[in-house]
Amino acid sequence: MAIAFNVDRLASIRTPFYFYDTNILRQTLDAINTETQKHDNYFVHYAVKANTNPKILQVIREAGLGIDCVSGGEIEQVLKAGFPANKIVFAGVGKSDWEIELGLDKGILCFNVESIPELEVINEIAARKGKVATVCFRINPNVGAHTHANITTGLAENKFGIDMQDMEHVIRLAQQMQNVQFKGLHFHIGSQILEMDDFIALAHRINDLQDQLEAAGIQLDIINVGGGLGVDYQNPQANPIPNFKDFFAVYQQHLKLRPHQTLHFELGRAIVAQCGALIAKVLYVKENAIKKFAIVDAGMTDLIRPALYDAHHRIINLTSTATKEDAYDVVGPICESSDVFDKDIPLPKTRRGDLLAILSAGAYGEIMASGYNCRPLPVGYTIEDLA
Length: 387
Known about the structure:
Blueprint: H1 7-10, E1 17-20, H2 22-36, E2 42-47, H3 54-62, E3 66-69, H4 72-80, E4 88-90, H5 97-106, E5 110-113, H6 116-129, E6 133-140, E7 162-163, H7 167-176, E8 180-186, H8 196-215, E9 222-224, H9 244-254, E10 262-267, H10 269-272, E11 276-287, E12 292-296, H11 305-309, E13 315-317, E14 325-331, E15 340-348, E16 355-358, E17 379-382
Parallel strand pairs: 1-17, 2-3, 2-10, 3-4, 4-5, 5-6, 6-7, 6-8, 8-9, 9-10, 12-14
Antiparallel strand pairs: 1-11, 11-12, 11-16, 13-16, 14-15
Helix pairs in contact: 5-6, 8-9
């Protein structure tokens, strides 16, 4: 099922804006639940940094998923959306005191701790409040991922996590503290990973670390393998649902989970990317000696991924009826040379006023928008809004 565009209704709305096909979102969530319900101890937390649109959050909450947050603001947003606090895990390399206090006051499931100084601060704040904070330690497994360098997180050179050689020492510190309760380990090796071998390598590394800890008399209740599963940006209309079957099968087949343990996942992009598109209007078609430019009213302020990551998003012309194609650079109005969505892409002959859809924009699109050049933030609409 491809994302469905009601062009007449889309044309009635001021551009640029985000459009979400919640039918795709629900199918994606159904696919996740189909796989995880085969296992009583598998729990998926939506990585809310991908998209916090309230209508998207409502659909995800109704599907029964938990939440992965990386800021106090995200915790506040998902509580407002009705997610229970005891399904929230709080990650992030730089948690502020007020954010830790918020997590403690609300009774979140777990803090994913990334350093000894953070552990000490959580213990101090919890002691002051007369509470006990449940913690897991994010371990940097030094496992590479076949993805863009800016979205790898599991190498020793990355800022995230605790080095493997420090793991046992940090756990022993936590066990001596009165106001933290150590529960398990957390991992995340990167995003937009399409090669299952990367996840297999992570599973094997976790097995080795578990054996090491058990030899030292340390038991784990929680294993959190993060997320990272990628989506098909090249052909999203044909492949709107990521390969959840193989993703979850990796851990079932390769991770030596103990009977008492729970396995947690933090999926973001894989849940929401393909249900969203950025809708833009062509302002001008400009030609020079070597190029044709389709200048649209959306820019890097609305969708920064191409400028930030050299990310590819499929672009389609929703309104042109031409059969002949030309090659265009699709560019925005921002006063930056990096304000380019794609170069030399084939589109049906494009004219001023045509509507373009920039696909696979449901993740890290609307949420990363900015007001640079004093531009208004784009609005997000769902398919129900346009019925």
